[in-house]
Prior knowledge:
Layout: H1 10-22, E1 44-48, E2 51-54, E3 59-62, H2 77-88, H3 98-110, E4 116-120, H4 123-138, E5 142-147, E6 159-160, E7 170-171, H5 178-182, E8 184-188, H6 192-202, E9 206-211, H7 227-238, E10 241-245, H8 258-262, E11 268-271, E12 282-286, H9 288-291, H10 310-326, H11 329-350, E13 355-359, E14 362-366, H12 375-378, H13 383-395, E15 398-399, E16 408-409, H14 416-431
Parallel strand pairs: 3-15, 5-8, 5-9, 9-10, 10-11
Antiparallel strand pairs: 1-2, 2-3, 4-12, 6-7, 11-12, 13-14, 14-16
Residues 67, 122-124, 127, 150-152, 212, 216-217, 245, 247-248, 272, 282 line the site of pyridoxal-5'-phosphate.
Amino acid sequence: MPNTFHPTPPxxxxxxxxAERVIPGGVNSPVRAFGSVGGTPIxxxxxxxxxxxxxxxxxxxxxCCSWGPLILGHANPEIVDAITTAAASGSSFGINTPRExxxxxxxxxxxxSMDKVRLVSSxxxxxxxxxxxxxxxxxxxxxxxxxxxxxxxxxxxxxAAGSGLLTGGISSSAGVSPNVADDTIVVPYNDxxxxxxxxxxxxxxxxAVIVEPVAGxxxxxxxxxxxxxxxxxxxxxxxxxxxxDEVITGFRFGPTTYGTLIGIGPDITCLGKTIGGGLPIGAxxxxxxxxxxxxxxxAVYQAGTLSGNPVAVAAGMATIKVLKRDRPYxxxxxxxxxxxxxxxxxxxxxxxxxxxxxKGGVFTPFFRSxxxxxxxxxxxxxxxxxxxxxxxxxxxxxxxxxxxxxVGFVSTAHTRADIDAFVSxxxxxxxxx
Length: 433
Ligand SMILES: Cc1ncc(COP(=O)(O)O)c(C=O)c1O
């Protein structure tokens, strides 16, 4: 495949112009518009392993990996086989299938805090269902979320911090009713004192705390020691539910959830991305007594025409079986460390204020020297410099998630040579910023 770089790739440019006429903003998900890095969004025709091909003939090594689902890379033969075999037997029935039972059994076996699980079609649906369930079970209406965590685009979760810690939040999107936003309390991530203060003041009104146990939507931010444990303590003490949103972290650091790995059992876990192997899926699962509050057993309504879709379930089950069998997590972590140390050294030698945050094979190139523990820290990053870095890397044949406040993923399809090439290209890129 040729590898020609065009600063304004003509075919992508034309497609984007056509798209803008018929798709709002030209994209089906906002960040794809390159709004925070500038330039023309690329269009892709194929992917194989860790490589993608654009309509302009540029071959790129992909570190976005569909924002997480592709832990096994593009078009992994085992996943393709599972998908084609399932599709050949019918792509949707709206009737129960044996495979969804097997998949639910597999998830519950690998995640001890999950007695029962309901499959949905996206991460957004999973978190939205989790909140309704928590409200239904507790009879309370307030939700606590953390600044900088993203949990999909349902109304209760598109909320930014209000004027004070104990005031309700404000809508972060037009169209979210102030009343809904008012029921969401937004607290700084990693701030144990703040969460204890909120629970001391109004713990008995809080239905649930929802958190990304490792945050991935303000760039990669690890939880401080004791932060997650403190959430478990305050929620248990006040009769609210703890929801771990593991849409990114589930099956990312081990063949289970992050909660399982650190020994903290939330009441509800939300999954997505990796558990669909690149097809649309989500899951919400947890304690049997909580899950049984869902219809048809309980009074909390939730449903979906394509829930448990046989093709998506086949892709997800194949992915999880590969992860369980091959346990590639040391390999992902080792490649991640080479990437991290290489980027840090290259940035230091170019005199660029920078550090690469890393957990396993998940990373964020932060354009700031000091560590990032919460959203206010992340906002101090030089986003303009990130934009220049993004384009300098694109020019050199590497695709990163197009925003400073996102994560990159190393997949099992990336090799040591791919990581070395990335580090060496970054060394050149840092010098031209
Ligand atoms: C942590 C987290 N939760 C939920 C979601 C929403 O998932 P989806 O985009 O599948 O609706 C995302 C999406 O990026 C996410 O990162």
